[in-house]
Amino acid sequence: MPEAIISALFVFVLASFAGFEVINKVPPTLHTPLMSGANAISGIALLGAIIVAGDRDWSVTVILGLIAVVFSTINVVGGFLVTDRMLQMFKKKEVKA
């Protein structure tokens, strides 16, 4: 059991460093498409959290799944709202005569 926790923590730390490096190298013009992709990935995480939380017996995994559902939903909805607001900034404004 401790080996599994150590290896999972090792993978998490490596993924965090790799994600940080990748995000820092992205030019500002590509942030909106990448945010849309990240929102789609968060939606997949939301489905996984719903599956985990859907068990009939209450346990630690079900409670963590419910917490994951709440946070993932906030992330998906907030991400799409921010992306939509960013895209609204690029629309041409109508000129009234």
Automatic annotation (TrEMBL):
Recorded catalytic activity of this chain's protein: NAD(+) + NADPH + H(+)(in) = NADH + NADP(+) + H(+)(out)
InterPro entries assigned to the protein according to its UniProt record, in alphabetical order: NADP_transhyd_a_C
Top-level EC class as recorded in UniProt: translocase
Transmembrane segments annotated in the record for this chain: 34-53, 60-82
EC number(s) per entry: 7.1.1.1
GO biological process: NADPH regeneration
UniProt keyword annotation of Transmembrane helix present: yes
Segments forming domain NAD(P) transhydrogenase alpha subunit C-terminal: 9-92
Subcellular location: Cell inner membrane
Keyword Iron carried by entry: no
Recorded GO MF terms: NADP binding; proton-translocating NAD(P)+ transhydrogenase activity
CC per GO annotation: plasma membrane
Pfam entry (one): PNTB_4TM
Keywords linked to the UniProt accession: Cell inner membrane, Cell membrane, Membrane, NAD, NADP, Translocase, Transmembrane, Transmembrane helix
Membrane topology: Multi-pass membrane protein
Function: The transhydrogenation between NADH and NADP is coupled to respiration and ATP hydrolysis and functions as a proton pump across the membrane.
Name of this protein: proton-translocating NAD(P)(+) transhydrogenase
